[in-house]
TrEMBL record:
Name under which the protein is recorded: Reverse transcriptase zinc-binding domain-containing protein
Record organism: Anolis carolinensis (Green anole)
Domain of life: Eukaryota
Signal peptide segment: 1-19
Keywords on record: Signal
UniProt keyword Signal present: yes
PANTHER family hit by this protein: REVERSE TRANSCRIPTASE DOMAIN-CONTAINING PROTEIN-RELATED
Length: 406
């Protein structure tokens, strides 16, 4: 996908999009392109979710924009960017970067928000700041926040350098201990540190390093790491997908999340063929149109099964409980047992979802998934036909096999 790197380049160098309406318009255009102008069959939250959680990995442009903006914030927080560049970015500022990142100095100094790039970046930071930190982080430097213009040093004392933990409480070190590691810390600077410490102590300090501290240490793949975290927060309310609940209801018992994760992270990787993966994904998301669905928006259409013409054509009925379809699956079941030389229950959990664990024989498990996928694809080709596909289309039958079966 060549479009995404180009968009990331723009987001990283010009992170100035402050209105979400632009992203909404882009999402509509993407949806029209993906679904050909028709109604989407899969929710957008499922499309953008990570593949290891059952999503399809569609890029979320707004989250990529936010991730690129947070890389700028990372430089302001670490203070490791070239001093001249940081000075140039904040040439018109009165206080240090940490004053705007944590002490809300921007609400007092309106000049900070008048810069169209800084205001956009701070809007992104304010959006996720409380997600990263509920208490005062230890990477904050109070002295940089109040005296950056006056001192202009490279090495600033942070809370993790000047605090010591005793009995689950943080206490500030003495002036002598602080001066050993940071020169030019006089009595006046030490009083400033104590004043900030007294204020921040009310909120409390972080007990351990969080995800943002890990990001601050990274030098490579920063955007991807931030994006994955933002995406996790974006989709955290949709951990159990609606289709998963419907499958559990059809099967009459719950399916453990670990079983779904094995399908997403292991079984789908058994093949590189996209048409095979596509079939399982369509089954999982219940993608196929059924008579029941079509009857809802077309009054002239019947909701009866296309094959038996008796029962209501629900998704599960069309794939498993239809009398004619049952005959097809019995044929497939008999052939797979004969090929693998093992006994397998005729269970929709195995044949539709591929959730069969064959102990100590991974090759047979992989082959079983290939065979059941081929059977599903064969049935899908005759989806709207009244008759079921002949078994010879799925696998040629010899006379000897017919005699053995009879």
């Amino acid at each position: 996908m060549s479009i995404l790197p180009k968009m990331i380049f723009l987001f990283l160098n010009i992170p100035i999009i402050r209105s979400i309406q632009r992203f909404k318009n882009w999402n509509k255009d993407l949806s029209k392109f993906i679904w050909g102008g028709k109604k989407p069959r899969i929710k957008r939250t499922h499309l953008i979710d990570e593949k290891k959680r059952g999503g399809l990995g569609l890029p979320n442009l707004q989250l990529y924009h936010d991730a690129c903006g947070l890389t700028w914030i990372k430089d302001w927080a670490t203070l490791k960017k070239t001093l001249k560049i940081l000075t140039l970015e904040g040439a018109d500022l009165r206080s240090g970067w940490h004053a705007y990142l944590w002490y809300d100095k921007k609400s007092i100094e309106k000049n900070f928000g008048n810069h169209f790039i800084r205001s956009s970046l701070m809007k992104i930071w304010d959006k996720y700041k409380r997600r990263f930190h509920l208490k005062t982080p230890l990477w904050i430097s109070p002295l940089e926040a109040c005296e950056r213009k006056e001192l202009g040093r490279d090495n600033w004392p942070r809370y993790k350098d000047i605090l010591i933990r005793t009995n689950n409480n943080y206490q500030i070190k003495s002036q002598e201990d602080v001066s050993k590691h940071f020169t030019n810390i006089g009595w006046f600077q030490y009083i400033q540190l104590k004043e900030y410490y007294t204020k921040d102590k009310k909120l409390g300090f972080e007990d351990q390093e969080g995800y943002w501290e890990m990001i601050m240490k990274l030098e490579k793949k920063v955007i991807s790491k931030i994006y994955k975290k933002l995406l996790e927060w974006e989709t955290e309310t949709d951990l159990i997908k609606e289709c998963m609940s419907k499958w559990a209801k059809n099967l009459g018992k719950s399916i453990q999340l670990a079983e779904w994760e094995k399908c997403w992270n292991t079984r789908l990787k058994h093949t590189y063929a996209m048409d095979l993966k596509e079939n399982w994904i369509k089954i999982f998301y219940r993608w196929y149109w059924t008579p029941q669905k079509m009857a809802k928006f077309n009054k002239n259409a019947s909701n009866k099964c296309w094959k038996c013409g008796v029962e209501v054509g629900t998704f599960y009925h069309c794939w498993w409980t239809c009398k004619k379809v049952k005959v097809y699956w019995k044929e497939v079941h008999w052939r797979i047992q004969k090929m693998l030389q093992i006994r397998i229950d005729l269970n929709p959990k195995y044949f539709l979802l591929g959730m069969l664990d064959i102990d100590k024989d991974r090759n047979k498990e992989v082959l079983f998934n290939y065979l059941t996928t081929a059977a599903r694809m064969n049935l899908a080709k005759f989806w709207k036909d009244k008759e079921i596909p002949e078994i010879r289309v799925y696998a040629p039958t010899t006379e000897a096999e017919e005699e053995t079966k009879s």
